[in-house]
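#structure-requests
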Amino acid sequence: MEIRRSTTSDTDIILNIYAQARDFMASNGNANQWGNNYPETSLVEQDMKDRNSYVCVDNGEIVGVFFYTEEIDSTYIHIYEGEWLNNKPYGVVHRVASINGKRGVATFCLNWCFEKCKNLKIDTHRDNVPMQNLLSKNGFVSCGVIYLDNGAERIAFQKSN
């Protein structure tokens, strides 16, 4: 597998992967995190424009997608019911998704991000138990609770060297 920046020609595939992820989440007790249409096409396109959208490719096929940047995330400034492992500069990972049935993609993407920045932050919905398990399996520690701009609660995780 390899990681590359996504391009506008990847948009339909990326949107399909996110649709599969929404279906997976809904069938695993997490219908509310992404609802019926998150992330919207406009957000996917903005991620590409900002050069923060990446795809995971295996044998020429896009099998995963994620957002990655190394900048301050405003929703991570305040953490409740806990604390971050450290206050060093960090990378941020959002919107990790893979095609149905393809194992190891999310782990590969998270490892790629950690190679880029040895201090990562990510968050997920309380009902997203598969993602929480994936993060724990990959060395992320639950640090507390953050709130998105719309007020929605998320469990915050961090992995640091």
